[in-house]
Amino acid sequence: MTSHIVPDLEARLALAETVANEAGALALDYFRRRDTLVIETKRDLQDVVSVADRDVENLIRGRFNEAYPADGVLGEEYGLEEGTSGFTWVVDPIDGTSPFVNGMPNWCVSIGLLYEGLPVVGVISAPCHDEIYAAALGKGATLNGVKLSLDSSRTIRNAVTGIGANNHVTPKTVAAIVESLLEAGGNFMRNGSGALMLAYVAAGRLVGYYEPYMHAWDCMAGYCLVKEAGGWYHPFPTSGERLTKGAPVIAAAPGAIDDLRRIAQV
């Protein structure tokens, strides 16, 4: 699919950037007064949510419903609202809620857009770092307006790989990933936000990212960014109910694809 057959692509990218900036400002305001937030836990005590997540998602949904009422919206907090246009916005209002509520800057607002199941827009706002990552299918990726282009000489051996884990994955599985990566001569980091680490792959800060179980709202924006910066991603199942379920997420710069696929066994 090429960009000219995605209707209103530039307009939707511009809207996504505007909304990401607005949502990022709201989230940052909450972050600065996070001591006043009521923090709730989900099934897993490490999985937290606050009124900030809900308010930011409501803001984002409202903007998209107003501008494109026929588009679907999938958000982490309020689920899937199906559309009729072939477009679905895929939103994580605050990815990295745990860093957020604990006063660390590694969180972001992630806004992806699918058209007929393919990621065609990705915008990630990292307000604490004053950074906005933006990409659209066939139009390249940027960080604060500067074009991103991945260096093929970087591999898992001379750069850092991001990994993610959650309670859907056994400790043994996570340990095996770390062991495989280290044995292959690599090194790793985890900052608490999968979406932000995917943005870092697009920016060349990380050479790749792997998480065995991740949701669409965490990865769709990042996938578009990585692809448009010259990288690769492992396809995410987007048809029907599969879109709302978790799946393996892998993204890599050109020099790390083979190694990461081997470690992830895909």
Question: What does this molecule look like?
Answer:
The structure is a single chain. The chain is of the alpha+beta class. It is 33% helix and 27% strand. The chain is globular.
Q: Looking at this structure, what is the CATH superfamily of the largest domain?
A: Fructose-1,6-Bisphosphatase, subunit A, domain 1
List segments where confidence is low: pLDDT < 50 over at least 5 consecutive residues.
none
Helix content: 25-40%
The CATH architecture category of the largest domain equals 2-Layer Sandwich
Distance, first to last CA: 24 Å
Output the structural class. Answer: alpha+beta
Mean pLDDT across every amino acid position: 94
Computed CA radius of gyration, to the nearest angstrom: 17 Å
Whole-number total of structural domains: 2
Tally of contiguous helical segments = 7
Keywords:
single chain, 266 residues, alpha+beta, Fructose-1,6-Bisphosphatase, Chain A, domain 1, D-Maltodextrin-Binding Protein, domain 2, 8-stranded mixed sheet, 5-stranded mixed sheet, globular
